[in-house]
Amino acid sequence: MAEKHNKVPDDIEAAEALGHVPSQTGEILKEGNNVHDAVFGEVTEDGPNYRNVGWLGTVALMLKTQIGLGVLSIPSVFDTLGMVPGVILLCIIAGIATWTSYMVGVFKMNHRDVYGIDDAGALMFGPVGKEVFGIAFSLYWIFVAGSGILGMSISLNAISDHGTCTAAFVAVAAITGFMLASVRTLGKISWIAWLGLVCILAAILIVTISVGIQDRPASAPQDGPWISDFKITNSPSFAEGVSAVSALIFACSATPAYFSIAAEMRDPRLFTRSLIVSQLVSTLVYIVIGVVVYYYCGTFVASPALGSAGPLIKRISYGIALSGLLASTTIVIHLPSKYAFVRILRNSSHLTSNSMIHWATWLTCTLSVTVTAYLIASGIPFFNSLVSLIGALLGAFLAYQASGCMWFYDNWEARDTRDWKWLALASWNVFVIVAGTFMTIAGTYGAVVGIIDELDRDGGSKPWTCADNSSS
């Protein structure tokens, strides 16, 4: 097996004293104003600085890849599963997501020449693994970008009271996302993540407070007495159940993004600190928002959840949330674009320069991702079903199976010790891999059934339509 550890001083101050800064891709060597990174090559003042994200910026990026799209489907998931099973499953999935994301940080520190999950796949499974994980990563984030564009179109429809054709709003969302996603470094995008995080949380809190103080949700019967019909437990069909669990996986597992985020951290050894903060905050927000909104709305909860309040609150909340949805869309367009860009120009001086080739390649990548995401948003205009499809088909595979395999790759040689800790962790990772495989198959089936049902439903949303998509 190839050497797995590129040794650098463990203490940050000692490393700096020796002129070394630890890097997830080997060592960054400082030479005057220039630094050399094993992935990005020569980083100079004349080009973009791809290693400029602090640990707090990492927290913002992590939170924004989760809170934004996933949280808007949580109350609807509770309606499908029941409140108690929904909360329990949410905590379980959030716990698994914390472990799988932690493994990303550990794997990058053990293999510092790894930039993305495709490099991890290459180490574990050779050239085939590299291509499989690379394609899955790209498709996953392009689909997430599609759901982001769809969410923005819903927001624009709500704010304007369906002021124009929905297809036009989808196009506006795609163009705006493309423009912001074309900013070249995550360091400069992190401020967008902070702004978007504040806006989406403010919007969700407004809806949460509103449904708590008003007598009934917007879609409930407006005449006569009304009492919330929330369910402590529920009995969904198999397809409905696995689709709901897939939505929870999507909401909790931003794991596929963390290789790319860690790659641009100034000190990737602070990855775990950022991860713990972001997971605690996101899980707490999910539980509070999901329970309160579903408790007051019951089966009349909307998805996205911002549509659960009355018309005025709906417009206000969507207006505030629009910046948050735009931030999410920006990041998830940027991630697959950056992956393609780095893979095309890796080991080339154009990667960190301001050359014509650099800009042409970068803008081609961002435009290609945006156009593909736009086509997805237009062709699958059902927020809940699209979220479930993403979580099942690609999210579980990239987060669960990949992380379990990474643990075995790093720890397989220690199996001869027969240590109880090794056996316990091995059993846990087998469970993670099996659970991920089951959800990939079953969840995809449930999501496809949901999309077919939406297409067949009388009055439901249709692909490539001008109809208002914010009225659900």
From TrEMBL:
GO terms for molecular function: L-amino acid transmembrane transporter activity. InterPro entries: AA_transpt_TM. It is a multi-pass membrane protein. GO terms for cellular component: membrane. Residues 52-446 form the Amino acid transporter transmembrane domain. Signal peptide: none annotated. Keywords: Membrane, Transmembrane, Transmembrane helix. Its main location: membrane. It is found in: Membrane. The chain crosses the membrane at residues 53-74, 80-102, 132-154, 166-184, 191-213, 244-263, 275-296, 316-335, 356-377, 389-409, 430-452. It holds the Pfam family Aa_trans. Belongs to the amino acid/polyamine transporter 2 family. This is Amino acid transporter, transmembrane.
